[in-house]
Amino acid sequence: xxxxxIFQPELQYAQAQGSVSQAIYQLRQQExxxxxxxxTRIRELCSPRHVPNDVFQVPAIPRTLSGKVLEVPVKRLxxxxxxxxVASRDSLANPxxxxxxxxxxxxxxxxxx
Length: 113
What we know:
Number of strands: 0
Number of domains: 2
Order of helices and strands: HHHHH
Shape: globular
Number of helices: 5
Strand content: under 5%
């Protein structure tokens, strides 16, 4: 599980105090609590059918030069399409965000194999 950047100061403090395993345990508890809060909020604002199975922290959401979110290209990446076929890098405001999703998709495919 990837550590959330917002918890880095707590982890650094715990490392200085010598209780790294306790800090990791606490971080995972905080991550689980945050995931539950997200699911609860979606359930309240939308409906239970909109609650995702998984919630992941991402560094950035891929956007076009005009600011639109690339929902369909990201979905295609997660379904196994090559990054070159889902979007033109020249049309993106932050192409590195799409690269992150491509790597994430490969990691998920490898872990499910």
